[in-house]
Amino acid sequence: MSKSGWYVEIKFKITLHNKDIGLLKLIQSYFGGVGNIKKDRTNYSVYSVNSLDHLLTEIIPHFDKYPLITQKLADYLLFKEVVMAVNRKEHLTAEGIQKIMNIRATLNHGLSPTLQEAFPNTIQVPRPICDNPIIPDPEWMAGFTSGEGCFIVNIRKSQRTKQGSQIALTFSISQHSRDEKLIRSLVDYLGCGRYYPHSTRDMGEFVCKTFQDNYEKIIPFFLKYPILGVKVEDFQDWCKAAEIIKVKSHLTPSGLDQIHQIRANMNKGRTVLNCDNTLSQKSLKSSRRFYSVCTNLSKEYTTPEICPLFITGFFDAVGCFVIIVRKAPKNNLG
Q1: Phi/psi at 8 (nearest 5 deg)?
Q2: CB proximity list for 266: less than 8 A, separation 6 or greater
Q3: pLDDT tens figures, 146-203
């Protein structure tokens, strides 16, 4: 609390659909079990760490050792300044609160109208320049894809095929246009695909549409460096569709019907039976059984363990650093 009447809350946060609560639990376990997981709104859960001690002993050391590479690195550097200021109890003074507001004004969407009115002398601090996005490790890529990747089976009507349908596999990753340099670099990193800027939104997208590249580059990559969470089931189904296409069974009525069934149950169409920690383990075991029979894709698959660079890549995709400044109740001043 601040004697000037303002309360400062600092928070590390990841929000996921309830079907991925198992992944949130794995991440919480990686950070020594600190923080808590709560339902934020309908169908979503949030893993957050807001204890100053836990931020200093778990979160800050991780991101200092395994740095973010998206523009969230700039958010982290500003967030860390506030954490350290609070640790020095600077937030208990009017000058310290103003310093924090100057930083808060640069983060995310800036200050609310209420805070702008309360702190008219706020001067935004310069946003750190982070313009060297070099992917540090394939595990980072696995984490980033677990957060933002998308595996799609497209079925289009076509008069050029006997079955009247054309099948195509697409792998894509979208991100805000401020990370265009990073997303463009995926073309060289993965050795395939193209970058497409969004026509109406501040977004950019890496897309791989070529079957040969998806089959020979994307699939082997994620067999070696596995995705975690429920998305691994989408990858599994995507691989099944790839096998059907590879042997040209999609050109038969039964094969096409199989692909229709696979597509119907992927992504938003997937039914999740439970949302506890067994979900991720069940998905991984199912994938292990599947990959073991795909001998032409991978001879061996073992259940992966979450690793530090996976955590960083995943947070680069979906994480958030939060600084909340609000008026403290009068009985809590001092």
Answers
A1: -115, 125
A2: 151, 152, 153, 234, 237, 238
A3: 999 999 998 877 656 666 678 899 999 999 999 999 999 999 999 999 999 987 888 9
- Model confidence pLDDT, tens digit, residues 122-147: 999 999 998 878 999 999 999 999 99
Tokens representing 129 are: 């320049």
- The SS3 call for residue 187 is helix
Quote the tokens at residue 46. Answer: 């949030």
pTM (predicted TM-score): 0.85
Closest CA relative to residue 65, chosen from 312, 305, 310: 312
Q: Distance between the two ends of the chain, CA-based, in angstroms?
A: 7
Q: In what order do the strands lie in the sheet with 36-41?
A: 36-41, 44-49, 6-17, 319-327
Q: Burial letters for 150-180: b for 16+ Cβ neighbours within 10 Å, e otherwise?
A: bbbbeeeeeeeeeeeeebebbbbbbbeeebb
* CA 117/CA 48 separation, integer angstroms: 29
Residue 112 CA to residue 270 CA, distance in Å, equals 38
How high does pLDDT run on average in the chain?
86
> What is the CA angle 291-297-298, rounded to 5?
60
CA–CA–CA angle 125, 127, 132 (5° rounding): 155
String of b and e for 37-57 (b: at least 16 CB within 10 Å)?
beeeeeeebbbbbebeebbee
Q: Report the distance separating Cα 66 and Cα 74, nearest Å.
A: 14
Domains of the chain: 6-65+72-129+318-332 (3.10.28.10), 138-303 (3.10.28.10)
Burial of 123 (0-12, 13-18, 19+ CB in 10 A): exposed
